[in-house]
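Structure, all two chains, one model.
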Amino acid sequence: MESILRVILGILVAGSSIVSIFAPELIPVTATLPVKIAMTIFGLWILSGIGKDQINFALRLAVGITFVYAAVDKIIHPDQFARIIYNYHQVPGQLINIFALFLPWVELITGILVIVGYWEKAAVVMIGGMLVMFMIALSMALVKGVNIECGCFSTTSKAKGPIKDLIFRDILLLLSCGVILWAKKSWLAVERQHARR
Amino acid sequence: MILRIAIILFIAAILGGINNFINPNKVPWVGNWPSAMSDTDTNWTSMSYEEGDPPTLKLSEAFDRWASKSYVFIDAREPEEYAEGHIEGAISLPYDYFDDYKDKVLPTLPKDTMIVTYCSGSECESSLYLARFLVQEFGYTKVEIFFGGWSQWSKQQLPVDGKYGNDEGAQ
């Protein structure tokens, strides 16, 4: 399972990066060329499967840092985040504020646990659940044609990426979660060293 | 695994709760979002409103537009009233001093800017005149009027800037 997901993830990351370099009109990613080249190399490395432990660690870093980074601004600005949630028109009004207070902390805690490798399987399942939730919310916004702010990383940014790009990014993260979840061992994980003693 | 997930959720709930006590941007536990204010959500209009004038908005519609952050709210009231308090992020373009303000404000707004005008409330008409003016004289294509205005907005304790707000949008 881990290998299958790893190969799919590698193909998607490397493939989309290569296409965005040579045919930017097909995948208009707003990244600089060095970033795109780095993403291509990262994708090919994931695909090659050389050093599975290090791939596992790199993916944990990628997923974990993404979620920690996403959480910080929302924790500082629950008022703004609540407004963004309201704007999705998918959460009942009475629950919006509770949700805005609660969700970023789940993101932060699970992100940290995945990075350090403690309870990382439970954390990665929760991250996967959140990603599925975000994808459903984004898809419904896409279907309804609602003009939304993503609210993914920053509560103040007015940038609105095309929703299907955001969904694609969530798919990559979800595949990474799968690779981490089904990995036989986690490299540089606190939990494993703890258990050994 | 399920126990661990439950523990993580529990800790997150506690931290989220603590955050709401110490965070300066804290929110009420139960939000006052528009689904909860439908009882006052009537569509005000004005005696002078004529067919062909820019469309009018109910409070919930105005709030949706405000929340989307894609719209520019224009306060048509006197500069002093604006300074005392206005809808968060709104810009000041007093209808009575239009000529003094237009060169400063209008160049910053492209003709297809999505605009919502408002004034004091249902008894005032400067929001209507300003909206008409922007459409007929200056060629703005996406103008709407929020007749409920400042009185309806502030009554529902929706976000404001100025004397009662955090001054961020005041100029």
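The longest helix of chain A spans residues 52-76.
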